[in-house]
Every structure is written in C-alpha cells, then in structure tokens.
C-alpha cells in the first residue's frame, strides 16, 4: 500500500509538474510573442527615429542655407540703400547744376537780348550820323582788331 500510495503521489506530483510545465510553456510562449511584438515596435521606432534624424539634419542644413541667404540679402539691401542714397545725392546735385545752368542761360539770353537791342540802337544812331559814308566796299571791311585812324569815317556793322 505504501507502494501504491507512493505511486499515486508520484503520479499526482508528475501531473502537477506537467501542468506547471504546460503553464510555464504557455507563459514562455506569451513572453516570446510579447518580445517579438516589442522587437517589431523597437524596429519601427528606430526607423521613425532615423527618419526624424534625417529630417532634422535636412532642416538644420536648410536653416543654415536660409540664414546665409538672409545675411546675403541684408548685405545686398545695405548696398542698394547706399547706392540709392548716392543716386539721390547725384540727382539733387544734377538738379542744382541744371537750375544753375538754366539761370546762367537766362542771364546770357537777357544779356544777348539787351546787347542786341543796344546794337540795334547804336547801329541806327550811327547810320543817322553817318549815312552811307563808307568808301570801302562791304567785302573790304577792316578786320577785327584793325585800328581806325582819326580821319577814318567808314561804316562798320557791329
């Protein structure tokens, strides 16, 4: 009886151990499935991180490029502003010079008109004083700078 009792106890223990073994196998299978799932999530996360890092690097490079372009644009703007200032000064100077030329031209025109009127008056006075007294034909008029003598009574157009 003891042997039968031992055999029954052994079978019960064996049955318990088999059930524990099956439970552990099932638990191991679940853990392996979880590990595989976690490995897949890790792999997916690594791919995402690689994509994010690539995007971050690209964005950083683009930001640097934009910063360089912005700095270049600032320098070009500063140069353009300097050139505009210079051109405005040149225009103002040219306008002043033009106004001065206009005034000088008007003065010369007035002088010319006044001298023309003066010449006409002088010519008419001279003609009234010495009508047709010229002995030289018009082609033989004395040259500019030739002196007149005391007895010269030639008519000269001015």
UniProtKB/TrEMBL annotation:
Keyword terms: Chromatin regulator, Coiled coil, Metal-binding, Nucleus, Transferase, Ubl conjugation pathway, Zinc, Zinc-finger
Gene Ontology biological process terms, A to Z: chromatin organization; protein ubiquitination
Localization per record: Nucleus
Coiled coil: 21-111
EC nos: 2.3.2.27
Catalytic activity: S-ubiquitinyl-[E2 ubiquitin-conjugating enzyme]-L-cysteine + [acceptor protein]-L-lysine = [E2 ubiquitin-conjugating enzyme]-L-cysteine + N(6)-ubiquitinyl-[acceptor protein]-L-lysine
InterPro entries the UniProt entry points to: E3_ubiquit_lig_Bre1 (IPR013956)
One GO cellular component term: HULC complex
Family in the record: Belongs to the BRE1 family.
Name of the protein described by the UniProt record: E3 ubiquitin protein ligase
């Amino acid at each position: 009886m003891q042997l039968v009792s031992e055999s029954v106890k052994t079978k019960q223990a064996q049955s318990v151990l088999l059930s524990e073994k099956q439970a552990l196998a099932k638990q191991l299978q679940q853990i392996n499935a979880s590990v595989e799932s976690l490995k897949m999530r890790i792999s997916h996360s690594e791919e995402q991180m690689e994509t994010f890092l690539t995007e971050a690097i690209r964005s950083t490079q683009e930001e640097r490029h934009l910063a360089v372009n912005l700095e270049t644009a600032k320098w070009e703007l500063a140069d353009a502003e300097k050139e505009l200032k210079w051109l405005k000064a040149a225009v103002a100077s040219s306008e002043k010079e033009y106004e001065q030329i206009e005034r000088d031209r008007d003065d010369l025109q007035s002088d010319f008109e006044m001298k023309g009127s003066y010449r006409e008056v002088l010519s008419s006075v001279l003609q009234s004083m010495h009508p047709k007294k010229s002995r030289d034909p018009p082609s033989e008029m004395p040259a500019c700078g030739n002196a007149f003598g005391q007895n010269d009574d030639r008519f000269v157009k001015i």
